[in-house]
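Fig. S4 source data, part A: sequence.
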Amino acid sequence: MVFNQDLASTDCFGRPPSRFGQVLDLAGDFNGDGFEDLIVTHGDDDPGKVEAYVFYNDGQGQFGVNDPNSSDPEVRVAEVLLGSPGLRKLGVAGIGDFDNDNRPDVAAIVRQPDNFELIIYR
């Protein structure tokens, strides 16, 4: 749940665990609209669930877009899916403009068979 400065709820993601993660961070202004967006990992411990997501902030304290497959207008989904590589994203973070292209970048930590790897998404 997202709260404003008065601790009033502004957005309840309304997603089941299969759609929302345990690790999240600000992604920066990923879509260039002037508002900080969110990046989150997948919430399940299922090794087949490998995604991370970027949810755009609409500037009104709501993140993501309405789910066209749901009759509930409160159920929202991500605009960006970070699925590759096909390894579970253990952690995610906004890292600023890593490559100096004037756009924010994000990073994910994945577990390889024998080590961990940092993946930069630009």
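Fig. S4 source data, part B ends here. The mean pLDDT is 79.
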